[in-house]
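G., the chain you wanted modeled:
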Amino acid sequence: MIKRDSSLWKFHNPVHITAGVDSFKNLHKCVPEGKVLLITTNGFTRRGISNKVIEQLGTSRVIIFDHVTPNPELDAIDMATATLRKYKINSIIALGGGSVMDFAKVLSVTLPCTIDRPLEHFLRQSNPLKWEKKIVTIAIPTTSGTGAEVTPFATVWDATFHTKHSISGNLVYPSYALLDPELTLSLPRQQTLFTALDAISHALESLWNKNRTPISEAVSIQALSIAGKALLPLLNDLDNIEQRSRMQESSLLAGFAISQTRTAIAHSISYPLTSHYGVPHGLACSFILPALIYYVLSNPVCAAKLGSNQDIIKKTGVILMDLELGKYLSKYLCRNDLKKLMAQMSHSQRAKNFICDELDISSIIQTFLDS
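Predicted structure as tokens:
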């Protein structure tokens, strides 16, 4: 088992979870009375999924906002906050992937806030961040990767300044999560892969983390074990509902893990790739994982901290190497572009969670380039 740095640890997760085929049909049981805001994408509206929400809740109650795009942007959320406040929303439904859930989770605290442009005020102007109220949020993931349905944070990107912010705290947790694997069946192969990589990265990042606990360790190992058995069969048979369900379970467990530990160095490395070159998050935080696995396991001190969990990490590394993630990354940026970003890859809040006290990002990047 892992040799932890401290004997003191805590665990808390308040999200009520319903999972399994047809769990989406239980949505009406979770939604309180009053106006409901459905946050989703235009694609789900076009495919008729938004109408299925209306069928359960009634046309008069549901307001649809389906303008969410990948990597929720600060100004877009502030504009949505200003537009939607007049509707006196009682609950929010997030139907979509990680970006949709992040957008909804941020709205759950900005809509009750009395400040005109809360993200401008708190994030750009660096005023003390404080949320006092939240709106009940029901998260319905349609991808298997982010685990955002059970985490107390949401990512906000500032395209103007190429920065990434995290909104966090107990108020940011969704109140309910509905996991229906049938909602993930429409995902094409590449998106299925990239979101699965996000779940794998979360589990690994939680294992090589200074904030790890017995519970985060246990769910991380289980998440990696499930993904190791389900991912490749799913990529070869995208209509396999059993494997879809298993990957959804892996994502959920990895989300539980990072809800306690947060992420670490792989995510720190990923941020400038997404901000400057639009690299999808799952790929951006996972292309470097084989190099990080080598870095950690070749360091006797770090490897000792991982103990017997080195075995599952090694097995995961083999799977990641076989996926040849560098080929996907090369569609977004070249080797020189990657090298130029190295100075921006040490995000202090994430890098400090890494179990290796001595961090050499240039060595890690070079290992990837040499592979």
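The mean pLDDT is 95.

Shout if anything looks off.
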